[in-house]
Amino acid sequence: MAFALFRRKARPNRRDRRDQQPRPATVATHPAAAVPPEVLRQVKLLELRTRGLVNSLFTGEYRSVFKGQGMEFAEVREYQAGDEVRSIDWNVTARMQRPYVKRYIEERELTVMLAVDVSGSERFGTRRRFKSEVASELAAVLAMSAIRNNDRVGAVMFTDQIEHVVPPRKGRRHALRLIRDILAFEPVRRGTDIAGATEYLNKMLSHKAIIFLVSDFLGSDLEHPLKLLAQRHDVVAVTVEDPSERELPDIGLVRLVDPETGVTLDVDTSDPDVRAQFDTQVTTEAAERRRLLRRLAIDEIPVTTASGIMDPLLRFFRQREMRIRK
């Protein structure tokens, strides 16, 4: 049970963030030191699982939803049945006395950034796994999808400061290293500052990127920083939740510990008024978050520790593809 459910996470003021943000705790610019064997085994298992899912389910969805920056001329070849008439190169056709068409390929060179919340509240889960484990699997699927489409992928892990940065690059080895870092990294701090993370991303990324912001979004005062980020980048909010964060069970007097501050609070869960107040607060905050994201035109992928990530991801890709086609 997370104490954080009974209060909104405080957003550090601007002076606090300036004190925390001069540099990330670690920047992954070269291979890290020895990694525990169990983490390497997890990376391998996660790669095998996600590679199969990416190959079987996301072959076309990712590419059709995230388009490249334009089209680049590739070659001129002879006309074949089914080619569009408008693609005929009339100069070459006149010279060769038979029809030729121009062929173009999509310029990809997309940059995908995974901004992953690694604060104390992510180390919570009452079902199959912790929220941090759900975030790791989702990050792995997105990283492998990006690499398969020859896009660059990077990661920023944050608490109430920037904890770890993996600069965006291409290639399978880089993707595996990114997944390893997300699995193995131990944050220095436990708080959360989503606004500070968005400011860092805006400064870090000089060109438009696709940013998956993975968090439980328990923070407050997020509209302005998210608006600034969404004005420059394609932002997708991935909300990670546990069912126990939405319903307070009737189990009598319990002591809750805030995973981010260590503060304890005794709560009588058998009191109907307490449970009703809890339900009202959770419902209100979820509705406010959905309205905020809709207002900012930010897509949301809700995932939970009680189920897999594939259905929410597929739903997101297909809904977005349908919207693009309209």
Question: How does the SSE layout of this entry go?
Answer:
Elements: H1 14-20, E1 26-27, H2 37-57, H3 61-65, E2 70-78, H4 90-96, E3 100-107, E4 111-117, H5 131-148, E5 152-158, E6 162-169, H6 172-184, H7 194-204, E7 210-215, H8 223-232, E8 234-241, E9 253-257, E10 264-268, H9 272-295, E11 299-304, H10 310-325
Parallel strand pairs: 1-6, 4-5, 4-7, 7-8, 8-11
Antiparallel strand pairs: 2-3, 5-6, 9-10
Q: Strand order, biggest sheet? A: 1-6-5-4-7-8-11
The tally of domains stands at 2
Q: Please indicate the percent range of residues in DSSP E strands (runs of 2 or more).
A: 15-25%
Q: Rg, please?
A: 23 Å
In whole angstroms, the N-to-C terminal distance is: 43 Å
What oligomeric state is this? single chain
Query: Helix share of residues?
Result: 40-55%
State the shape: elongated
By CATH, the architecture of the largest domain is named 3-Layer(aba) Sandwich
The fold-level CATH name of the largest domain is Rossmann fold
**Which structural class is indicated by helix and strand composition?**
alpha/beta
3D architecture notes:
The protein has helices spanning 14-20, 37-57, 61-65, 90-96, 131-148, 172-184, 194-204, 223-232, 272-295, 310-325; strands spanning 26-27, 70-78, 100-107, 111-117, 152-158, 162-169, 210-215, 234-241, 253-257, 264-268, 299-304. With 326 residues, the chain is α/β, with parallel strands linked by helices. It folds into 2 domains: 3-63 and 108-325, von Willebrand factor, type A domain (Rossmann fold, 3-Layer(aba) Sandwich), CATH 3.40.50; 71-107, no CATH class. A 7-stranded mixed β-sheet has the order 1-6-5-4-7-8-11, with helices on both faces. Strands 2-3 form a two-stranded antiparallel ribbon. Strands 9-10 form a two-stranded antiparallel sheet. It is elongated and about 90 Å long.
